[in-house]
User: Which sequence fits this backbone?
């Protein structure tokens, strides 16, 4: 009978290990190459944002059949951001992207206080009250006319007012200087 030697078994076992190791390495390499090829050849689409007067929002590039996880939140003074809309419908984050989209920001105006600025002309011509939004600036105040007098300035709580920022209802009182008629 022929008896196999231990050396032959050791050589055969080492060759099998090398073969399996090489096979696994080649398989991993081919898988990585295939995935990279798929990734690089998958179409990409742009999601563009029209902020409708809000802060600028950069477009997003996304691979085909993926969905967005989160959308940016723009800001706009005196407005609350409602959301991103596609046509007249809120955009659905679970939508699988397969084309370019432009999303439109929808805003809700925040309630702002309004204030009335009244003018007491002390017998001069009538000046209608003005309604201003909170923090609105009035740089040019109306000029009243009163016969026999020259208008000097407007007063509020005995302080001269040349312009104002609306923070409360106010009544401005005219100050005149009597003209000498010689």
Assistant:
């Amino acid at each position: 009978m022929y008896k196999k030697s231990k050396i032959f078994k050791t050589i055969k076992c080492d060759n099998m290990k090398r073969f399996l190791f090489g096979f696994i390495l080649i398989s991993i390499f081919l898988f990585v190459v295939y995935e990279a090829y798929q990734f690089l050849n998958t179409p990409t689409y742009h999601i563009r944002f029209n902020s409708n007067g809000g802060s600028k929002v950069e477009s997003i590039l996304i691979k085909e059949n993926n969905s967005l996880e989160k959308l940016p939140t723009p800001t706009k003074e005196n407005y609350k951001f409602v959301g991103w809309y596609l046509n007249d419908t809120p955009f659905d984050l679970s939508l699988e992207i397969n084309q370019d989209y432009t999303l439109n920001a929808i805003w809700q105006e925040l309630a702002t206080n309004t204030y009335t600025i009244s003018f007491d002309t002390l017998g001069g011509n009538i000046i209608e009250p003005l309604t201003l939004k909170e923090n609105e600036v009035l740089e040019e105040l109306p000029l009243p006319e009163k016969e026999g007098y020259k208008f000097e300035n407007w007063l509020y709580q005995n302080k001269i007012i040349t312009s104002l920022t609306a923070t409360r209802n106010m009544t401005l009182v005219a100050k005149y200087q009597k003209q000498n008629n010689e």
